[in-house]
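Collaborator request log, item 7. Partner lab (contact: R.S.) asked for a structural prediction of Voltage-gated chloride channel to inform their binding assays.
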Amino acid sequence: MSSEQQSWIKRGWRYTTGRCTHAMQVMRDRGPSQLQFWFMALMIGICAGFAALGFRLGIGALQRAIYGADDLTMASTAFHLPWYWVLTVPIIGGFVVGQILHRFTPDGRCRTVSDVIEGAALDGGRVETKAGLASAAASLITLGSGGSSGREGPVVHLAAVISTMVAERIKASPMTGRDLLGCAVAGAVAASFNAPIAGALFAHEVVLRHFAIHAFAPIAIAAVAGTVINRLEFGNVAEFSLPHGNDLGFYVELPAFMLLGLLCALVAAALMKAVFSADDLGRYVLARTGWPRWLLPTIAGGFLGLIAIPFPEIIGVGYETTSAALTGRIGFGEAIIIAMVKAVAVAITLGGRMGGGIFSPSLVMGALTGLAFGIMATGFLPELSGSENLYALAGMGAVAAAVLGAPISTALIVFEMTGDWQTGIAVMTAVSLSSALASRLVHRSFFLTQLENRDVHVAEGPQVWLPQKMRISTVMRPVTEDEGPSSDLVRNLAIKGNALDEGMRLDQALAEFERIGAAFLPVIRPSEEPVDDSEAAPDPEIIGIVYHVDALRALNQALAEAAAEEHS
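Returned to partner:
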């Protein structure tokens, strides 16, 4: 190569890198253009798809290495393994999970979909990256070693970690960060279920909690990209194969599906309350005994191993059991027993902080509940009934929709996972009634109840959670007598205790204004030095004042921005 050619290549390389650097700087300053954002959505969808695919293949590889089977043959294979092997593996897995979460998360808790919802609402579309990666590793080990949970929750958070890295890199605004987060979630869900439509709607319905028009196209692009990644590996096939003849026997059968929906709501609520009760019990035991927190997943693994010896159906994601229920290869009594044992196993896994998600267990519970109900219904009026498999399909959607609080995307996930679009009337009937009743029994969904238990009130709407994330420092003014009240008046208010602490949130400040009825309040810095009882308390350090009208104006502006984003 001549020196002239080398010089031309160097100039071209410098020009290209310079333009890329300039484009990146412009994107950071002004935000991405529509074309840039769509390209980013495509890339994030591909990355999320590979993350979901890698997570799924990783679970399968670990299961084959430990049990000699993947999730579609796990229960039947584990039934023939030595009892000590079935008992020991979850204990070892729980110990490893405990060590990972203890070292790499501040609270020893796996991150999942609820944290993604919180990140979308409160943190500008960002989630914890270090804790998220640790949670993905912990969930992979949990599911590979016999934990009874699902893979979709960890995959959704792992995809959110990817979008967070991109958002931080380009210094994305909160709205852009949420849109990138929606793209990542859509790509991950679509790749997990081979369900592009459901993936896009899940991101809107569950995570972003609105259907903004401006975000629909990029989220759809990401969902399609994630689906393509899945199909490159597994082909265009449904997750579950159903037998033929699932049509409704007659429309008079619809009341039975209405009853099934109400029953599934009760089952979903019982499953969720069991998980929350197990989590409360685990924290109570640790608090009373003083045991290290990494020991809790180990203990949970021991209980899981004991249950798995007589009931290997509880091991892993549970797709083999779900497929058996959808094809009618489980009897009435067996379906009820396995469903009850599965609920206990899921509560132990998630309450014991071993990791994993709730969606796949809800599919198992729903299919078993629907099958048991269908066997009774078709046996009662066989001449007017279709197949009991249709009840299993409707039950699967109904329980999952109630747990996720997502009737639209869940119904579509069921259709796309089974490839059966002819049973829509029955499934939608059960899903709608189940979602309506379950939302009255819990805080609208499993994820939102998790957030409520952490004092994060996303379920109540932006008028509640927006002032919870805003600090009074954003509306605080300096104390200047030229433009405000006298320093003596401000100091007297502070001495009387009519003041705001500098770390207060806006909702707390508004509550104080309502209680005191003042037009303004001083902001004080609490003293860090202990005060002797014999000495007079020193005057509080006043660092500023907050006007009631400024606090209301800030809240109104935040609500207007949220509404503008939702309807854009």
